[in-house]
């Protein structure tokens, strides 16, 4: 059957769209609208094109014109829903997906997109039902299978999440989007080595996939291999120099390696590109704190708080610095600021206890430390602080019990080793004190920390030992 002039024009428009020539496609589609003003498909395509350029109001306008010409045009209802999701209007989107499904109950794509809208709203269980319905209608619908994996990942059911990502990969083994989602799922599940393997597969398919290099770096951070982590973060930003997450993560790895000057450079690059970047301000404050530049840390924290006054991460690093500088009143105000945002922040309550302890208010301090532990039983700093407090009160038996429990939980924690060493020293158990201190020094060198016993032989590695 020969094609009509309208068919030829529409096929030309579709060809341009599929080739990604969107500007030419839009020009030709606008001409087609003038020539064929009663053709619903043309208005629907105009809606798609305007949605591509984020002109959602124009997009919806053209979709509605298509529906006026054809009230049963379920694809147009679906497309309006997609536009509303991108427009961050999930409730409106769901209305149009429901209308598309009402017209065509076997429309798998509408169920998948409705799942996306529900997920955006936080209705994860309902989203699961929609994705599953979509897969029931089309068992090979990769997008729906992958989305089901994503939503189970959001619900922290990593076993189900991995299952659906691998199911999607059976249909398309080299799909990078699915592979990357699987890597994220494995990372969230704590399977860091498996996540690295998946990311390496992504890099084998696309050597410029900077997100995969960054994810490998994050895995090595969790595996406490900061040197390897730094190498992969560096690779990610070589591919994309303005990749802010990669720059931030590279800075964190360098900070852990005590390369403070180079870490500072990375965070400053982030702030140069994004002057309101919360992570960069928090990290830069921490770098200056770790490097002993406390006044500079205060300056950076204050600058960050001008743009992010409710940033808990910046406030916490600000408080730590203020405490070390004995600026307790300011630290207390900053703690109150965090607790006005989250009254159950255990770390902040613990820091309030430290402020009270430094000022000699031991009863108030104890209440804060115990409250912090009640909220987070695994908060190591609060346990150490409670032990120190008992020690200051002269209750050495209770302090020793806590230190022994901590030693079982954290056999190589630098702070615990130091506190236990100091405790043994005060009990004049010098041999035990030195054994703990020496081990701590060898494992975690700290040039600014001096052996507290004067005129006694110390480990030969210390400068000025006798």
What does this entry look like structurally?
With 466 residues, the chain is mostly helical. It has 26 helices and no strands. The chain is elongated and about 100 Å long. Mean pLDDT is 89; it is low at 457-466.
List keywords for this structure.
466 residues; mainly alpha; elongated
SSE map:
Blueprint: H1 5-18, H2 22-35, H3 40-52, H4 56-69, H5 74-86, H6 90-103, H7 108-121, H8 124-137, H9 142-154, H10 158-171, H11 176-188, H12 192-205, H13 210-222, H14 226-239, H15 244-256, H16 260-273, H17 278-290, H18 294-307, H19 312-324, H20 328-341, H21 346-358, H22 362-375, H23 380-392, H24 396-409, H25 414-426, H26 430-443
Helix pairs in contact: 1-2, 2-3, 3-4, 3-5, 4-5, 5-6, 5-7, 6-7, 7-8, 7-9, 8-9, 9-10, 9-11, 10-11, 11-12, 11-13, 12-13, 13-14, 13-15, 14-15, 15-16, 15-17, 16-17, 17-18, 17-19, 18-19, 19-20, 19-21, 20-21, 21-22, 21-23, 22-23, 23-24, 24-25, 25-26
Instruction: Estimate the mean pLDDT confidence.
Output: 89
Give unreliable regions as ranges.
457-466
Count of extended strands: 0
Proportion of residues in β-strands: under 5%
Tally of alpha and pi helices: 26
Radius of gyration: 30 Å
**Form type:** elongated
* Through-space gap between termini: 102 Å
Helix proportion range: over 70%
Structural class: mainly alpha
What series of H and E elements makes up the topology?
HHHHHHHHHHHHHHHHHHHHHHHHHH
In this structure, how is the largest beta sheet organized?
none
